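Support reply, case 0932

Customer input (verbatim):
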Amino acid sequence: MKLAIIFAILLISTVGCSVVKDSQSGPTMNTTNTTTNTTHAISGAQQLILTGQDLAQLEMKSNGTDCMTEDYQTDEYSPVAQYSICSYTINGLNDTQVVIELQKFTNLNDLNGTYQYASLHLRSVEGLLSENDYGDQSRFYVNNENDYGGQYDDPNIHYYTLYICKDKYLIHITSSGSKDAQEYVARIGRQILSKFA
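Our regenerated output:
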């Protein structure tokens, strides 16, 4: 009985690895079966950057500069392997800017620590719009006068901030401008998450 179980596990492992290998083999793979569910592994922050098609769908435009991506040497004290930053404007929302930061970490402990600090630091609970709506580690905020230094914010400028953890990535989306940007920031988060599917 033990031998049969071990054989079944080896067979599943071998077949599973073969499917993954075939799905990455490019144009020579068999494409007749279109109902196969596969998950595309994200190998770098560049794959999460919004494309021209994404921007059109989200009703946004680039601010005229390309996204910047930097690769870093990593060790136990430097867990960020890659960092990307992009700047956009939301069409139709007067001068509302959006900044997207993407960080790839080498391990989940450092990712979680950075997420916890960044998404809680200087923020009051009064500005929390949602928690865990974009995965089990996400926080969506709007600025509030009870935030640290919030009393100095211009009341006509709203800052929406969405933090999402997915795999070894920290996704940070911030808007500055219109009160109506909340749904746009939410849509941007969902669009980036869809790239993991």
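We compared this against your earlier run and they match. Two observations from our side: Residues 45-194 form a domain with the Protein Transport Mog1p; Chain A fold (CATH 3.40.1000.70). The two ends are 37 Å apart (CA to CA). Please reopen the case if you see a mismatch on your end.
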